[in-house]
Design goal:
Blueprint (H helix, E strand, L loop, with lengths): L10 H12 L7 H8 L1 E2 L8 E2 L8 H7 L8 E6 L5 H14 L5 E5 L2 H18 L1 H6 L14 E4 L2 E7 L13 E5 L14 H7 L9 E6 L8 H6 L5 E6 L6 E3 L5 E4 L2 E8 L6 E2 L4 H5 L6 E4 L3 H9 L2 E6 L11 H11 L3 H11 L13 H6 L8 E2 L5 E10 L4 E11 L5 E12 L3 H12 L1 E4 L4 E9 L7 H10 L1
Parallel strand pairs: 3-8, 3-15, 4-6, 4-7, 7-8, 9-15, 16-20, 17-21
Antiparallel strand pairs: 1-2, 5-6, 9-10, 9-14, 11-12, 12-13, 17-18, 18-19, 20-21
Helix pairs in contact: 11-12
Length: 479
Amino acid sequence: MTSPLPDYDGAEDILRAWQSGLAPDPAMTVSEWADEHAYLPQEGAAEPGKYRVARAPFLRTIMDALSPGHWATKIVWSKSAQVGATQAGIVWMGYVMDVSPGAMLAVQANEAAAKKLSRQRLDSAIRVTPRLREIIAPQKGRESANTMFEKSFPGGHLFIQGGNSAAGLRSMPIRYVHLDEVDSYEDDLDGEGDPVSLAEARTITYGRRKKIFISSTPTIRGASRVEREFELTDQNRYHVPCPHCGALQWLKFERLKWEWGKPRTAAYQCEHCDELIEERNKTWMLDPANGADWMPTAAPEVIEKARESNVIGFHISGLYSPLGWLSWPDIASQWEDAQGHAGELKAFKNTILGESWEERGEAPDWQRLYDRREAWDLGQVPDGVLFLTMGVDVQRGSGGHGWLDCHIWGWGRNGESWLVDHRRLDGDVVQEAVWEDLTELCAETFTCSSGVEMSIARVGIDTGDGMTTDVVYSWCRRM
């Protein structure tokens, strides 16, 4: 289990939060700090040396949404692998330490991932970045202010925790929270609830000055946390220009074309002019100077609700990976290799396309089904209902007591149906009283939204067990 945070009463952090609220937010953005101060270490980085946001230009808007001056308080990034996400998180941590100090929590999938982040990525970044090396004391002994899971700096602390420990996700107030790879978190931590909700609850003290950064590669459709969070945002996608016609579009895998068996021929087909775009044009296409930009793709009502909630979302796939990282021929080759292997196809969808995998089988996708629900009150006939039916189930308990379980359904075109009402008629099912109640129910009418009243057209009833069969037949003959 991840080591819990020290036993804080929260007073000092509440005072710090109040004091920091008196100071204006810094004007420098996260991307500006990255370009000016961030460095990549020799170990753990494919391109060590000075960090350049322009290497992956789509990161600039995401980074700047993490800046204190940006309106968003929650940033959701659904992504593929190899698009610079981990390094963007490290840059944000460096920015907080140097420019906008405060209490920060970085949550990884588990304790092992938290150790890896601290040892291999963060400590190395601090060592090679002069601004951070000046303010972060080296780890020396057990009494050091800086340990594997805690980094102290003037004005704040960075706590690194695994998403498998409830103790590490509660207690003291936190202004900045980075929840990385949330699809790998457990569903319920020690009976205390969802780890994302536990971590987010720690930012309440800071109101609109907080920042919650949720990033992950999606996993299973309907169960993916990051997909669920992303669908509640304005759903920004990076639109890039075609070098032939100049029209903007966001990149889709189905428009990557190649001769089967020859992935090196892979090129992207413009959805506007149908011309093939070669891999070498990618750098030009990604450059904002040529028109590339993030654009919301959600429905207008979803965008409006997300903005009211100060939430912004981004999605990007491996198709945008800069030259020298993941190429279109690489993607084509991996797609060919995955054919016939469900596990490899799933990994391709998740890690290359940044999309969730839809499990095959008879079980319904509960999340999609839930999202299609409609709202109406029991007893009300929804629009679209053409006639009503009722199904009655005879339930016989001990001592003669029982009940009639009645479901009234509305039916529309193409087999669409709605549950209009449910009644339970209690009584001895071998005596007349409960059957008289059923007769009265059959005579009831139900009102449509237009004011028209509808009666039950047909009734289906089971015959129960041997003790009630004759009673049921007798009632049916009378009806």
